């Protein structure tokens, strides 16, 4: 009889704290969300077209001074970020979604790299890439990542370095 009482007590103690809806929907302690959305293909100079993407970030991590930002970036900007991180940081940088060489051949009958399906696949790949990098504690201190996520234009002549978390 004694054993049953202890079990009942232990179970009762476990059930005391019910999670409220507020708890369930409260912002997690630390969060960093990055969405790559709204691809827009633009006619550039000559017949040069390019697609850029909106990179939206929301965070409460102290290392980021701006808690919400939205910038537009091209694939080449993601390449720039990857190269900077490979050169200056100790992290293993994940690969970008592949270059679209086959899709740039002039005799293809379709729109190649400006095709919706390709753009959507690339968008997803870029989103996975930037979330992996931005989620890495060492990358979060790199100035190039902050510039990529938060500055309207990337200053390619910037001085690489660490962000001091003040």
What would your notes on this structure say?
The protein is α+β, with helices and mostly antiparallel strands and 166 residues long. The chain contains five helices and three strands, in the order ααβββααα. The chain has helices spanning 2-14, 21-25, 75-88, 116-134, 143-150, and strands spanning 32-43, 49-59, 68-74. It has a three-stranded antiparallel beta sheet. A hairpin with an 8-residue loop joins β2 and β3.
Total count of helical runs of at least 4 residues: 5
Determine the fraction of residues in helical runs and give it as a percent range: 25-40%
How much of the polypeptide forms β-strand, as a percent range? 15-25%
Helix and strand pattern: HHEEEHHH
Mean pLDDT: 82
> For the report, how would you describe the main beta sheet?
3 strands, antiparallel
Shape call? globular
What would you call the structural class? alpha+beta
**Head-to-tail CA distance between termini:** 60 Å
**Biggest β-sheet: strands ordered side by side in the sheet:** 1-2-3
Total number of strands: 3
Low-confidence sequence ranges: none
Oligomeric category: single chain
Nearest-angstrom radius of gyration? Answer: 23 Å
Keywords: Acetylation, Cytoplasm, Golgi apparatus, Lipid-binding, Membrane, Phosphoprotein, Protein transport, Transport
Protein name: Sorting nexin-3
InterPro entries: PX_dom, PX_dom_sf, Sorting_Nexin
Main location: cytoplasm
